[in-house]
Amino acid sequence: MVKREVLSSEGSLMVVKVQIKKGFEGDTDQHPEEQLSYIEKGQVEFEVSGKKNILSASETQYIPSNEKHRVRVIEDCVIIDIFTPIRQDLLK
């Protein structure tokens, strides 16, 4: 249901392509890295610190360091996530 591909992890930046199927509801996540999510395709609902925001293609969502967040997929989507610093847990 979720497919991740690390596109780049150089310097202090990481770019990850994420493909997620309609109906997916993620668990609440929290990490020290800042995150910027660009919606390449589809529609998703981000919940960041209790505030919900529906995003469509070409829109972005910023997630500050250590903020609780989750995603609900409304339409099959492709998201480009940018993290700083690099999320070491995604390199395993």
From TrEMBL:
SUPFAM superfamilies: RmlC-like cupins. Residues 18-83 form the Cupin type-2 domain. InterPro entries: Bacilysin_H2HPP_isomerase, Cupin_2, KdgF, RmlC-like_jellyroll, RmlC_Cupin_sf. It comes from the Bacteria. Pfam families: Cupin_2. This is Cupin. It comes from Salipaludibacillus neizhouensis.
